[in-house]
Fold these 2 entries.
Entry 1:
Amino acid sequence: MRLVHRDAPERTATVEAAPGPALVLHHTDAKGKQRKKTFKAGGKRTDDMVAIWYKLLRFASKEGWVAPAPQEGGGPLSWLNFHHLDSYGTLAFTLDHTRGHVWMYEKRPGAFLCRVTRGSCEEHAIDVRPIDRVRELVCAADGDLYALLATIKRGRADTPAWLLPPKASTRSTWCASTPS
Amino acid sequence: MAAPPEGKYSINLVRFDAELTPHLLATVPTSDFDRMLDDLSVSSTGLVLAPHIDGAGLYDRDGALLEVHPVGRMDDWYPKGGLSPDGRWMALTGPDRQVRILDREAGTETLAGPFDQVLRIEVSNGGTTWIYGLGPEQQWGIYRARAGALDRVSDNVHGQVSPSGERVLEVREGLATLRAVGEDEPLATAQLPWLIGKHGRSQFWDEDHVVVRMGGHTPLLELDLREL
């Protein structure tokens, strides 16, 4: 696998298998120095390649490495996006078929809607705090993104201020029980 | 105007436009997820199927409420639903372990089931409904409901049906498997050693390209199914 650094594309890294089994990450640090880091599984399952890949991906993600497409050797992988340093993972995602974007909801902590352009690692993030959770995410055919944003309140439902109009509105924002 | 009902949770239906400006379409306060849709579906005609305090609400793109439908939950999952891309067909989990499939144009309804669990519902134009769950005879899988018939097309509830409805992609434990709908023998498989996770969730760009999420702490990736 070939990697480039998210902030400095001239920095590159490669992943190679090694006896052990192990994986070796050859990379260039911020000062341009060649580095090598070996990953092995701990505990009793020393042959657990999944655990080894997990360790490597965590480190690579933490250090800002991404895997651009296409990867050498072909294969089915055509694009891959790494997570941010402190991401808890992508909890929901949807595709913008019209514009070629992938929308993701990530907890990093905090809550972010991230838009990644297909085939690149260019990212645009929207901070949606203090939303507690994005329950669903759907991109419409016209490119608009729809989201169910959940907030947890102490005894009373509320809506985050950033979602409300700038001035007080007379329009009810809660659902009437009778259709219009 | 009556005061809005109180609830421990507040579900906000929000639309982000092309400039990423948020538009709050509706807020649903609730403390009871059992009787409210826990799903979101958007048609290409601008209809939005989303939670409503009395079940499922059908909204327009500006948040005007057009219809309200009751829903029911299954054992471990909150109520689910789906809307066809053309907005004509809608499917919702009901209170009687049945999935209700509604033809909004004809005003007719058919039932599919029984289901003890429903994780997801997808509806195609023409009314074919894909139900991911624990269906008749206590079998997990992907079920296809069409023209009043229900058949199980995959035993992997974590698979994903392709846009044509002819293939299913399953990704688990780093193994991607492509099958023809209803067939046990795979069309193709690929071991993807850098993939981690018990089950992958995938969405198709088109018939040959799919984006896969393997779970927390793992990257999103795109597969070219022609290369499997």
Note: The longest strand of chain B covers residues 22-30.
Entry 2:
Amino acid sequence: MYINKIKHILLFFALTALVACEAEIDQYTPDPGQANLTTFVAVGNSLVAGFADGDLYRSGQENSLANIIAGQLMHTGLGSFKQPLMKDELGFGNRLVLAEVEGSLMPVPMPGTPDPANFANIYQTEGPFHNLGVPLAKVSHLFFEGYGALNPYYGRFASNPAASTVISDAAALDPTFFQLWIGHNDILGYATSGGEGDGITPAISFMTMYLMAVEIMTHNGAKGVLGNIADITSIPFFQTVPYNALLLDDQNIVDLLNHAYSAAPHINFILGPNPLVVADNDHPAGLRQLEAGELVLLTALGGIRNDGWGSQVPLPAQYYLNLDQIENIAGATDEYNQTISMAAETFGLAYVDIRSVLAEAEHGIYFDAIGFNTEFVTGGVFSLDGIHLSARGNAIVANEFIAAINRKYNASIPKATIGSFPGIVFP
Amino acid sequence: MRNFTMSALLLLVMTGHVFGGGYQVSLHGHKQIGMGLIGTSLSLDASAAFYNPGALAMMPDQFGVQAGVSGIFASTAFQMKQPSLYQARTDNPPGTPFYFYVAGKITDKLAAGLAVNTPYGNSLAWEDGWAGRFLIQEISLMALTVQPTISYRVTDQLSVGAGFVYAYGAVEMERALPVQGPDGEGRVNIEGSTANFGFNAGIQYEHSSGIQVGLSYRSRIDMEVDDADALFSVPASLSGLFPAENKVAVSLPLPANLDFGLSYQVNPNMMVGMALNYVFWDAYDELHFDFETNTPGLQDSRNPREYSNTLILRLGGQYRVNESLFVRAGGYFDPSPANENYFSPETPSLNNLAFTGGLSYIPMPGLSIDLSLLYVIGMEQEMMYVPENFGGTYQSRAFIPGLGISFSF
């Protein structure tokens, strides 16, 4: 009889075990809040398109900022999000990969031949597209009729490369929600040419065209999110080569250089790190040494290493930014950002202060137990070109856009899991 | 053969999953487990050698030997800090902590015993590639203690005892490294073992009215592994930054315990009791990895844990149905020692609420088959590891049936 009782007790325990043994946490429920997220369109430049490692390629596009945001919006009503995907991992053939060259790691061109189909227009076969990020596009280019004939990145997915505009293609999708992140190229061309090539778009022109773009995108009552402009001079492209990159550890070479520059007494070399010698038309001698705070472009690295740039040969003016140029860039960034935050306020849109986010990342920041900073290659935020974000960098920024949308529209869009995106691949 | 037995034994022990606070495991006797894991004031049998050496001299029998094992079926669930849909859970192998006690009375007043058990351990495996893999993917750590004990009955009512504790500890852990190669992410595996000493002492008071009071103290033992193997697997171009076969020194304290127990024999058939366990968890302030070879990519790392002391309240009792059957029930509340800002998923220790039941079947005098069952609810709580910005809501459940046998005369 007791055996029977024991059996019953054991049976009870076994059943309890079956139902209650597994830990289980209730799933949280995503919610679009006051935003209608059923049709999402992203407008911008390379940062929206998924450009990384010097090119636009398929897996980079799959991990694009716009696609990561869209992936999360799928949980709050978004139906579909189509991107103008490249056919392969080579894009237009400018992609960089990390390789070991003479014992040191550096980005080198990825071997292979790109699929010619990457250059062909795919609007008729695959369009229309929701990711209207166009590498190289400035704000004025959004309204440029026939921009597709000028910029192959738009040409390949424009509704009519000879006549359509990016903004009209975007508006034609009748979005309920949009992302607009544009303006970096209005400064970047100036910055990456050492202030010698492309000019900075005047703030007043930027404001006019930016507000026009927002006006068009909100015309049908769409809500949206605007991102501001980051400090371009803080990206690895300008922060990797120090102003005093010339390291001399041999007194003979120091003497030889001092002798070679004996006609220019303001130029001196010592043992240890030395400021690079640069060409400067504003200097009476036409050349001088860099000052602390001036920035050398990443693209100068090859010449410094191999061709004596900065020592035997003055570094050409298009490879560095002087203090005035840096100030011009900072000033334009301030003015653009005033426009963008004003636009967000005026049109009742969400606003993301990407400038602050990336500034915070400079000093090192953790997401999901992965450490990030803005160092070239090892920092993890930027891709191998030192300008564009990595896949994880895109995910970090995507989460900031999502947070801004959640705040503004009382939405509850789930964030992306940073660690589920690929990191920089080391050989 | 002996070697094989020993390693098989260790293998079994290695899989003990944490279910108590921190990495303390309290499965040391199925009679006690059945009663909410009270035991400090009990002088039931040879298991007193562990629970309270002071009570060993009070055990009713001349000689006792017992052994038991538990099966731990536990899982922990994780929901990433909201808003996120990310969830993960552990996929733990069942753990099997065990105990073995033998004790006898040398004279009427003097008793001696030996306790072998596994008072600390933690084994868990998060699902492969989970979001917290850079903190922990898999871990198993355990401590096996061997404790020779003597106990002396000073008066009919008062006895004292003490034991010398030899502790053997082993740890194995694996983390992912956020460096990616053509074949996937880097990994580091750390494996090592060590041994150290401590003590266990107690005092027991038993009044003829049926009231029993016990107080015991188990000392802190630092498990200092000086030369654990640290095996790195990283992309070839980074092998200079992460030497493949490094060594690491890592230390883990086994915290001291101060236990107080009070029990009352209500009538010949019914006993009720309680225990308070104060655990000196503040010993665990950080987990420090000191690598033998440092590189610019591999620095020593200090990981704050900032545990706090905890007080566990236990209640339980037993009822003798007849000569051959005892039934038991109990429960306890074991608050988490973990700091909510330094909560690492390697030891997802939550506030635990547990219910227990048990019985002993006595087929013949001197022989007892002891069954216990423990159900532990690790209460849902949002926890962060702030230094690396990782966290969310954790919850756990454990279902722990146990079987033991004791023999005495």
Note: DSSP finds 16 helices and 15 strands in chain A.
